[in-house]
Amino acid sequence: MILRWLVGVLFTLALGCVSVASWVVLASEWHFRSFDRPAAFALAIPSDAAALSRGDHLVRTRGCRGCHGEDLAGQVMWGYAVAPNLPALARSESGATLEAAIRHGIGRDGRALFSMPSYNFVRLRDTDMADMLAYLRSVPVVEKALPGASLPWSVRFDIARGKDAAMPAYVPRVPPLRRSDDPDPRMARGEYLAMTTCNECHGLGLRADSPWEGETAPDLVVIRAYDEAAFRRLMRLGIALGERELPMMSPVARGRFAHFSDEEVADVFAFLTDMSARAAAAEAARETRR
Ligand code: HEC
Ligand code: HEC
The whole model's pTM is what? Predict the structure, then answer.
């Protein structure tokens, strides 16, 4: 009698577990497949020397190697995500397929990506996108055995109950470029650089406005404390004001931003300083209204 009751309870429990697990898988997979492909990228991929060198500069300063490996041949990130072999993909896939992944977070199988930071690249200009693809096609292919990706249950569970989302849900939240027509050309150039490099960590709009919990990069109005020479030192050598070595910013600066040209450093500094002054003015106006 008791035995039969126990079997019944165990059976119900097992059935419960299986249904929850199936719901998590079905709901998360439905989410991953719920995003439309963007309109096909139409630019031809160039192959001239100027395009390759521009593409090389973009790949270095936008940090693709940090996740896809020094040889770009792919690696496992955070123990579960698998950043694929880019030179190999650049040869097997069309420019449109790669662009959908890089700028919109839609993978080559039409399924949304989760870990690839497309929000950081969505504002890249078409010509820069084409030059980046040109460069990736020119990098020698190194064959590397990579394991299959498997998303942790905790991530799937958060997605299933709507607490987290795949990359294409975040990409549209990146603010538009606002300074493209500014009479001071440094504003347009600096904003473009900051909104395709710094906003990977400093918030979608550079103001510590990250949609993810636990981000530690500050609002970039912190630039106020810096003069141009100190900022240049941070970008070139990774040394922050007061001779500080910062846990994340310092190695990131040395790895990526040391490759900025002098003009690029000056443009980012001019734009961020102006952004910070505008933020202070807006704050002061709010204070007086109070
Ligand atoms: C923060 C880590 C990270 C950075 C930085 C990064 N990627 Fe990725 N990328 C990934 C991961 C992980 C994947 C695998 C898909 C996933 O898990 O989202 C991926 C996937 C891709 C894909 C293939 C998508 C598909 O169809 O399967 C392409 C193409 C790609 N990345 C290009 C780039 C380029 C170009 C750059 C630099 C401009 C870059 N990535 C920077 C982590 C990164
Ligand atoms: C990969 C993530 C990442 C990227 C990309 C990044 N930062 Fe940072 N940055 C951080 C983090 C995190 C901190 C906080 C200190 C730390 O933990 O290293 C920081 C701190 C800073 C600081 C404060 C330094 C101080 O005096 O304390 C400045 C200024 C800064 N970043 C500027 C930039 C600029 C400009 C860019 C773009 C060109 C940029 N960062 C791109 C992660 C990043």
Answer: 0.95
